[in-house]
Amino acid sequence: xxxxxxxxxxxxxxxxxxxxLAARLVREGARVVVADLDADAASSVAAAINESHPKSxxxxxxxxxxxxxxxxxxxxxxxxxxPVDFYFANAGVAGPVGIGDDDAAWxxxxxxNLQAHVRAARLLLPGWLERGEGYFVSTASAxxxxxxxxxxxxxxxxxxxxxxxxxxxxxxxxxxxxVSCLCPMGxxxxxxxxxxxxxxxxxxxxxxxxxxxxxxxxxxxxxxxxLSAIDDERFLIxxxxxxxxxxxxxxxxxxxxxxxxxxxxxxxxxxxxx
Length: 274
Hints:
This protein is of the alpha/beta class. It is built from nine helices and seven strands.
């Protein structure tokens, strides 16, 4: 499925991976709706895109934890450009440090990191199935294949996002619905630094666990990899190829992997207090 001439929605598009994806999609010939909870950030990204590619991007403030706002986002894309071909479920939150203190932070993390994907797919699938094509790109994380030291909610919801993307592909892959799932490790975004800025030793360990495990990529580097994967219609997008080896080791000996992760976590915590 080619990007040129298509209509795309990118959530979490006000910066980071989402902003880079929106810009790269337009350079490849798509028209894009840039959505973000921060409406000003979304507007800045769209304005920068339109400087070089006029009338190729529009911005919309959107809270993807609210299905009515997702519905309004899709309706705006259709009204401005036409039926949505690509949906990038990219918005994400770090969630509470550790296990969290209450249900509210967990609910927000589940809504943004998982339920937003489910709700968008529910709205898009009827039209896609009728047309016989559509492309859903889920931004999960390497934490969805491995785990995330420091944040239970982030780890759990990213595992669930991978599972939902798998289900979409299994259920609708033979009916023209393409699905890709992006699972990077470190990418230089505000989300990456949330843990070390939390003031909590476990939160700081979460950031160091990612930054010490492999290269920290730029959002532009990730966007290039994503567009290449879409061109190949590849399901699992791994900007850090070493994640696949880690995932295989995990599946090959789960208990050994868990023991190693506990030791790794303790080293990170010890370094934070030394």
